[in-house]
Design a protein that fits this description.
- This protein starts with a helix and ends with a strand.
- It has a 3-stranded antiparallel β-sheet with strand order 1-2-3, with helices on one face.
- The chain is flat and about 65 Å long.
- It is 51% helix and 6% strand.
- The protein has 3 domains: 50 residues; 84 residues, no CATH class; 62 residues, no CATH class.
- It is mainly α.
- Helix 3 crosses helix 4 and helix 5 crosses helix 8.
- It contains 13 helices and 3 strands, in the order αααααααααααααβββ.
């Protein structure tokens, strides 16, 4: 593909919005498929820094102090207490927690799906956090945790094509408090794929959550989320 400056700037801004923070050059090159050679043809030497400036950001200066892990856990605990449940990544972004999700993973090696359990390790012997600890469910089995990490690492190259209304489906799937919303979003996902849907939901006896119909192909699928 022959990229123009406008194409690259647009892709940078889309990726930044997805991350919730300014991407590093490594993240940009790996996840957007736009390599350094393309940028050098468009911006000359030091291309990524020039792209960052072109987009209104400041190039990252090495040696910038990072947010200490304890400070992150304190923010996480206070926010969990405020919400009455562990925050989703979207909650943290809307609350403008510091740092953003991506730097937590990049700097401290913690996936957002593991944050509740890393917080438990931090808070388990601290009585001031007892009420928050009680709001966090037990850690899932190892096999489920591994699968969640695979989902969490889903490449932006694919993730950016998922409609926003179902981008939080993976988080809903591991939170029993949002079971009804998970059912609705699952049926909505099939609707986005072109199926006709009939939603039944909870409280309808031994019925499935819903039925999706492929009328033209003459088959139906029973959905129980």
């Amino acid at each position: 593909m022959n990229y123009t400056k406008e194409d690259v700037i647009r892709e940078y801004k889309k990726f930044k919005e997805h991350l919730g923070t300014q991407p590093s050059s490594r993240e940009f090159y790996c996840e957007t498929g736009i390599n350094r050679h393309v940028l050098e043809n468009l911006f000359g030497s030091g291309p990524y820094s020039k792209l960052v400036k072109e987009c209104g950001d400041s190039p990252v200066q090495f040696g910038t102090p990072k947010t200490e892990l304890e400070d992150i856990f304190i923010q996480y605990g206070n926010f969990t207490r405020e919400l009455g449940k562990p925050p989703f990544s979207a909650d943290w972004k809307n609350k403008k927690g510091k740092p953003n999700i991506s730097p937590i993973h990049r700097t401290h090696g913690i996936l957002w799906s593991d944050m509740p359990y890393r917080f438990l390790e931090f808070a388990k012997d601290k009585p001031e956090w007892k009420d928050v600890v009680n709001l966090i469910p037990q850690q899932p089995s190892k096999s489920k945790s591994v699968e969640n990490k695979k989902i969490e690492n889903l490449s932006y190259e694919f993730y950016k094509f998922i409609p926003p209304v179902v981008q939080d489906l993976k988080n809903l799937s591991i939170d029993e408090q949002n079971a009804t919303e998970f059912e609705k979003r699952t049926l909505l996902l099939f609707q986005l794929l072109g199926f006709e849907i009939d939603y039944y939901g909870q409280g309808t006896g031994r019925n499935p959550d819903g039925i999706v119909k492929a009328t033209k192909e003459r088959y139906v699928v029973l959905i129980d989320a």
